[in-house]
Amino acid sequence: MPMTEQATGAHHPQPRPRSGGLQQSATEHVTGAQSLIRSLEEVGVDTVFGIPGGTILPAYDPMMDSTRVRHVLVRHEQGAGHAATGYAQATGKVGVCMATSGPGATNLVTPIADANMDSVPLVAITGQVVSAAIGTDAFQEADIVGITMPITKHSFLVTRAEDIPRVIAEAFHIASTGRPGPVLVDIPKDILQTKTTFSWPPVADLPGYRPVTKPHAKQIREAARLITTAKRPVLYVGGGVLKAGATAELKVLAELTGAPVTTTLMALGAFPDSHPQHLGMPGMHGSVAAVTGLQKADLIVALGARFDDRVTGRLDSFAPHAKVVHADIDPAEIGKNREADVPIVGDAREVIADLVQAVQKEHSEGHRADLDAWWADLDRWRENYPLGYELPADGSLSPQQVIERIGQLAPEGTIFTAGVGQHQMWAAHFLQHEKPATWLNSGGAGTMGYAVPAAMGAKAGRPERAVWAIDGDGCFQMTNQELTTCALNNIPIKVAVINNGALGMVRQWQTLFYNQRYSNTVLHSGPGADATGPSAGTRVPDFVKLSEAMGCHAIRCESPEDLDKVIEEANSINDRPVVVDFIVHEDAMVWPMVPAGTSNDEIMAARDVRPDFGDNEE
Q1: What is the pTM of this model?
Q2: pLDDT at residue 445 in the model
Q3: HEC sequence for 292-346
Q4: What's the confidence (pLDDT) of residue 178?
Q5: Does residue 415 contact residue 440 with C-beta atoms inside 8 Å?
Q6: Residue 197 pairs with which residues in a beta bridge?
Q7: Please, are residues 334 and 326 in contact by the beta-carbon 8 Å criterion?
Q8: What is the Cα–Cα distance from 441 to 414, expressed in whole angstroms?
Q9: Distance between CA atoms of 405 and 397, rounded to whole angstroms?
Q10: Cβ(188)–Cβ(160) below 8 Å
Q11: Domains of the chain, each with CATH number or no CATH
Q12: Given this model, what pLDDT does residue 617 score?
């Protein structure tokens, strides 16, 4: 497989030798399995999420002797992969998961695809059938290298035990540099059992892998010229800014230029929500000001973002009058969806730092944009169409209010993970995103079931932080078995189940576009049931009883009067996982919304409410 780079800026420390753990001299004979564990120690791995099975079993024996590598025994390999992703996103280090061959390996496919879409540094280590049996359809054989090739940054099939240290070093280097991403290492059982020698550091052999991190000076100068002459500029910030550790530089650039800032779903926390220049999140469920600001812009400065369909809406109608400066560490992203007038390949931190200097030089020469008229428009849109919600007339819990209060009552520095659906969008809107690495979610793949295992991984990596998973009752039923893992491994996460008794986002589409025909979206009762909320007699499963059976403290909240008391009770318990079943109104919807396949000009601030922008711009 050619070693081409894909990407969105990253600053990750290179693997460094570590002492301790399995003590073997460089000349002493070890097994391939011992060499694997020692290699993981040397690249700095402290946590592995996985499940043993026949072909990976040789690696589990020497892991018992390691004083540096902690193994967390999950209940499903998908949980291992998402936990490794949550660990990586919360710590900035490479996440590691491990599985056996066949179904063990294929259960990692979803989290690997998820990590690939969201540029998360991940190394997945899988066992494989013995070398002689490869290609014979042996028991639990699957060509996991072939299966995952389209969704990994690179894949290795180890054919010689002596290659294990080099392959592990290369895997961690590839995963964590350039555009971060998942790397698969597949090792046949006989290679793990073979006698070999261990030496460190190995000699890396990656002649075709040279990520470009330093931007071209001419492109930087041209971008600065456009920024200082634009009348309606917008900084369109993507997850690459977080991957690059460039949030401080971004704040300097934003305040220097005075331009408005939009942060994508993957970039929330890269620029403080409370900053007066922040317009919010763009896209299908973005704020009116952010969506409209991009549509009306005459210059878009895209930093570590990829012009994906959730942001652009119908691509041929997106920001029709804007010139584009597109900076990304992955050259394949530039021009892929939207032609760039100024393409800049480079690491986001270096790009933004150079842009700051170039803009300062333009200012010193008297070139400074007048954005007063632009901000007058933006402020009018913000004032006329703020994010908000109405409390249910029947006195039931508002899901938006639940999520907002969780954020307001959470301890300083709390890390939030989210599943996928309505609760994810409400969390994006109504949590206050002020700092990097405190908002983890599945953006590109939109993986239901992400929240609980990702929260487990984040808490394992940052045990000093409070970690809340904001989940839906649909997502929760996909991966809640990892609460058992949390209970048995002293990983006390907190889970808010936003329980509306339905697959909420799908139900919203059925309400809006399918004449309220709720086909197979009701979760709390059987076929033919109506779509009324989950009453006490129809709770299947009962999330409180289920959570208690898995070793958690569980609470149910149905009344707004109890909301703060319940959240404070959850925050006060830190010796075991906590699950709160919030019974919320089933008809709440996510607004704003751009209907799928339409132009961002068609944004709806609420049902049947299309903004009136009151202007006659081009």
Answers
A1: 0.93
A2: 97
A3: HHHHHCCEEEEECCCCCHHHHCCHHHCCCCCEEEEEECCHHHCCCCCCCCEEEEC
A4: 97
A5: yes
A6: 29
A7: yes
A8: 14
A9: 12
A10: no
A11: 29-197 (3.40.50.970), 217-384 (3.40.50.1220), 399-583 (3.40.50.970)
A12: 45
Residue 240 tokens read as: 């690459």
pLDDT at 524: 76
**Three-state secondary structure call for residue 103:** helix
Residue 272: both structure tokens together: 């403080």
pLDDT, residue 522, reads 87
CB 94 within 8 A of CB 76: no
Nearest to 148 by CA among 204, 187, 194, 110: 110
Total length of the chain? 618
User: Which of the residues in the chain have pLDDT under 70?
Assistant: 1-28, 525-538, 614-618
Catalytic residue list: 77, 139-140, 189, 505
For residue 331, what are the contacts with CB-CB under 8 A and spacing of at least 6?
A: 5, 212, 345
Say whether 510 sits in a helix, a strand or coil. Answer: helix
Residue pair 499/473 in contact by the 8 Å Cβ criterion: yes
pLDDT of residue 28: 63
Indicate the residue type of 153.
K
279 and 236 in contact (C-beta within 8 Å)? no
Q: Which amino acid is at 610?
A: R
Whether residue 461 contacts residue 45, with contact meaning beta carbons closer than 8 Å, is answered with: no
Contact indicator for 553, 539 with CB cutoff of 8 Å: no
